Amino acid sequence: MMTSMIPLPLARGAKRVTPQDAYRIAYSCSHVTVPAQPAASGYRYHDLRGDTLPFYVKRMALGDRSVAVTLRAPIELSAGDDAERGAAGLARCELTVGLRRIPWQDVLTFTLHEGESAILAQRAMDEVVQLNLLEAGDCPVCAAATG
Asked: Which has more pLDDT, 82 or 1?
């Protein structure tokens, strides 16, 4: 009996970015609300201490290729302080394909370099569109920075 070598999360069909999703990404400031149960959503919390702010990361790999969706520097919704692990908060969403971070303004239009996986890039985009993306005008972080 032959078993599949493709990890289960990659075995399901990739979704396409809908026009509504593309609109949400295009008008987002890159801030998102942290999922209610980050660990259950596949995010691992990292606090390296020192000058490095904590972050959540969801990595996906296929062979030696990888992508990551990172929720950087979460802050608590209630007080605006650094968020504790699992606390309701806002964070900046970042997409990494292989070793390169994709600038937010290019998330909808980036091209893959040789050796990067289209399957993994699509999985990362699937993850991004599942997040609660905030528009700059509705984002407390961005509104405070411009106000």
From this structure: 82
